[in-house]
Amino acid sequence: MFENAFYAGGNPNHPAADLGEVSVSEDGVTCKTFPCTPAGAAPYGARAGWHPVYSAPDNGISAVDREKAGGEAYDLADVCLARAKFVRIKDKTTEPCNGPPPKPNNIGFDLDAISILHAEVP
Asked: Which residue of 29, 38, 44, 62 is surrounded by the most CB atoms within 10 Å?
């Protein structure tokens, strides 16, 4: 999952992050949410939006190369699912889970892309 996070001053201990809560569902009704990490600073664990993205159309880094692409990776097994058809992302920049103080309303999670590994084609 890719958002436009970056490391402030190039320091990986200080990500400029707009956090999101990620949930997945197989049926579109019952959702499994990746757990909130109760911390006021990085690392933010299963939250989306705090790892820089390195994949881009013109730099040769594939969005499905987990070692190089950047962003956050999610394993459905972590929420006891074998497959999912739906992804829900809830902006958490103004509603943290014991996280940083709320940000102004004009800042929020900006989804750039989702890359799917091991997809099943119906």
From this structure: 44
Tell me what percent of the residues of the chain surpass a pLDDT of 90.
38
CA-CA distance, 52 to 42, in Å (whole number)? 13
**In three state form, how does the secondary structure of 17-68 look?**
CCCEEEEEECCCCCCEECCCCCCCCCCCCCCECCCCECCCCCCCCCCCCCCC
What pTM was computed for the model? Answer: 0.81
Give the pLDDT mean for 5-28.
88
The full length of the chain comes to 122
DSSP state of 103: P
Please tell me whether residue 87 adopts helix, strand or coil conformation: strand
CA distance 56 to 62: 7
Contact predicate 51/67, CB 8 Å: no
